[in-house]
Amino acid sequence: MVHPREGWQGHGVARRSFLKGGVGLSALAALGAGGALTGCASDLTGSGTLPLPRPSNPVTWPLFDGNASIKPGLTAEPGATLQLYIWTAYINQAVVNAFAKKYKCKVQVTTFNTMDEALSKLRSGLSYDVLVGATPDVLGQLIEGRLIQPLNHSYLPNISQAWPDYQNPFYDRKWQYTVPYTIYTTGITWRKDLVHENPYAMKNAWAMPWQAKYKGRVAILDDYREGICLGLMKNGISNLNTTDYQQIAQARQSLEQLSSLVNLRIDNNDYSEVPDGQTWITNAWSGDMAAAASYMPKGVNVDVVGYWVPPDGRGPVNNDTITVLKSSASPVLAHLFLNYMLDLPNVLENISWNGYMQPLTGVTPLVLVKEQILPPSLTSTVVTPANFRRGLFELQLPVDADALWQQAWLVVSNGI
Question: Matching CATH topology for 81-183+320-375 and 185-315+394-414?
Fold first, then answer.
């Protein structure tokens, strides 16, 4: 699963190099021909050893000897340089600078472009204090690999500002290792002045891209999970972690139909191509579209950009976490940074630049509009507790099922 920040370079999103590791041609041919592939896994173990957290299968991760949380009541390490490891273009430097000023320290920000890159470098022994942006699907690798340390909650009183859900999230019960960073939905975005349909009035808005009259103006995200999920939801399937071959194949066939119908484009440029009118309809990440005003052509009002997610919250959702790395040379300062990023004034300052919501009870559509962080027409990009509680998380799949998803996506993307 690609992250919304995967591949970011400066102000643009580079095309994603998908399907790391490749797929066998014989398997691809079998899927393209509609043949069944073996390995329709249904267990809840990704590699056979790690549990796969689900809302219906919450996980309490183990604590390990030699990896204890820090003691309470310690003071911040004097003269320290806090080392942050984070996705490219994913934090407001002004917030980082304010933290450094408050705690009389230095902060060094090191970025990565893919989670595979981050995991590889952490496993190689590179040392940082805080990892910002790990999604729930990689927590098992970080915890079982002793790459992150348990948190001492006494340093994190601002967790009270977060949604109550994050004091016992299904992917890290009792929040032993994580606090939340951002949360985002995947919905449908469209140019209201160029598209006649309103997804809020449609029986199935996920089917909105399947219209021949918009040929050449339709795109979907370059992400094998988001792509196949769109096909699933278009067909009325809400299990976005399905291991059922027939459902995956049906989604793939729908995307192939879409491709032939509208001359489909696949890219991650939703944040710029909808505002500038290159794309009229696409699935999109909420945080990207929250920043649409920054990409509107001169003289075009941001109100022409719409973003739809199911009003009942039953749509794709995911969130990022912040963790303290086991390698941290300044673990007290690291805890203070986590706490700082749970404080409403700092969070609003971060969202004003980053665009991606943070799940604090004080972050509401009314507040974001009042603070002129978000235009009133795009309050649908604001993620609510209902999205967390009712949303459809795209989570780590068993290995053989993941191969089915990737093979299906390769058929679709190679056909463009």
Answer: yes
Of 155, 148, 153, the C-alpha closest to 166 is: 153
CATH 3.40.50.720 fits 185-315+394-414, yes or no: no
Element (H, E) at 227: helix 224-234
Fold of 81-183+320-375: D-Maltodextrin-Binding Protein; domain 2 (3.40.190)
Tell me if 237 sits within 8 A of 251, measured CB to CB: yes
Q: Are 17 and 225 in contact (CB under 8 A)?
A: no
Give the start-to-end residue ranges of the domains of the chain: 81-183+320-375, 185-315+394-414
DSSP 275: T
Q: For residue range 67-96, what is the model confidence (pLDDT) as tens digits? A: 999 999 999 999 999 999 999 999 999 999
Within 13 A of 284's CA, how many CA atoms are on the CB side? Answer: 34
Residue-level pLDDT at 8: 64
Q: Using CA atoms, how far apart are residues 88 and 91, in angstroms rounded to an integer?
A: 8
Q: What is this structure's pTM?
A: 0.88
Angstrom distance (rounded) from CA 266 to CA 71 = 49
Backbone angles phi, psi at 145, to 5 degrees: -85, 5
The tokens for 394 are 């795209």
